[in-house]
Amino acid sequence: FFMKSAIWGGTALTTGGVYQAFKPQASVEKTGEAIRTVADPGSPRPWEEALQATDTPNAFEEIAGYNNYYEFSTDKSAVAGRAKNFVTDPWSVEIGGLVAKPRRMDLAELRAIETEERIYRFRCVEGWSMVIPWVGFPLARLLEMVEPTSAATHVAFETYYDAKQMPYSKFSGLDLPYVEGLRLDEAMHPLTLLATGLYGKTLPNQNGAPIRLVVPWKYGFKSIKSVVRIVLTGQEPSTTWNLAGPQEYGFYSNVNPAVDH
Ligand SMILES: Nc1nc2c(c(=O)[nH]1)N[C@H]1C(S)=C(S)[C@@H](COP(=O)(O)O)O[C@H]1N2
Ligand SMILES: [Mo]
User: Fold this and answer.
1) If you take atom 15 of ligand 1, which residue's CA is the nearest one?
2) Are strands 3-4 and 115-123 parallel, antiparallel or unpaired?
3) For 78-97, how does the pLDDT look when each residue is reduced to its tens digit (9 = 90+)?
4) Residue of 68, 122, 172, 203 best suited for mutating to test ligand 1, as the one with most atoms within 8 Å of CB
5) E strands along 53-123, which residues?
6) Ligand 1 atom closest to 76 (CA)
7) Residue 182: which pLDDT band, with cuts at 50, 70 and 90?
8) Measured between alpha carbons, how far is 228 from 19 in angstroms, rounded to an integer?
9) Between 205 and which of 86, 111, 122, 156 could a Cys-Cys bridge form, CB atoms 3.0 to 4.6 Å apart?
10) How far is CA 127 from CA 11, 58, 106, 249, in A?
């Protein structure tokens, strides 16, 4: 499918820094599982002019070889191997709750949404980070399609869970399925992405295939993987890490370099 190839970064967001314009990259075309990008991504939208990418992306091998995905393993270097045969096609995402037009979208419908490439720095509370060139589309685009009602204040997300496909999940120490949430305005923010790929290729299983959330100003655990359900609600949703350790992990979890989590 086609991708708008505007590239930008989100590193200064949490430190209050200033962004500046960044030129879209040339087109990339790869075969097989790869995603095709268009040569001319068009003019940047006004808010994009204020963004710049200052960090060099991590290597694909780093991004796809060191992962947190507790359903598969708590050992970051074992996740890729254990998620290798995870079935991500067929797949569908159910979007409902306080919306006028609830719907279920299959992969073909999700892939029909125009994507773009964005470079974000991704920070885990464990103290490591990665600079990742994601491919995806703003979550806002999906939410607009279902028309949230005026009663909707939050968005709840759920990861696919199947103990058969995820036999090591019993060692996760987590109550599964993995759940996360955002306030509606955070969810509608143009930087909040639903990623379907990285480095111009479809998303590796270990990174949350076929579709995962990416919220660049929040710690990594907010960026829930392999999403199957999105529900608009009128109250703050439960989140997996808050349930597991409420004294350590709050709902908002915005990156704050001045405060140890
Ligand atoms: N379903 C699910 N989503 C998840 C996790 C998980 O264990 N299960 N781990 C989170 C954490 S703690 C981090 S840091 C990021 C890691 O994403 P990456 O492996 O793509 O870098 O995914 C987040 N999303
Ligand atoms: Mo994390």
Assistant:
1) 220
2) parallel
3) 999 999 999 999 999 999 99
4) 68
5) 92-97, 103-106, 115-123
6) 19
7) very high
8) 34
9) 86
10) 15, 16, 36, 14
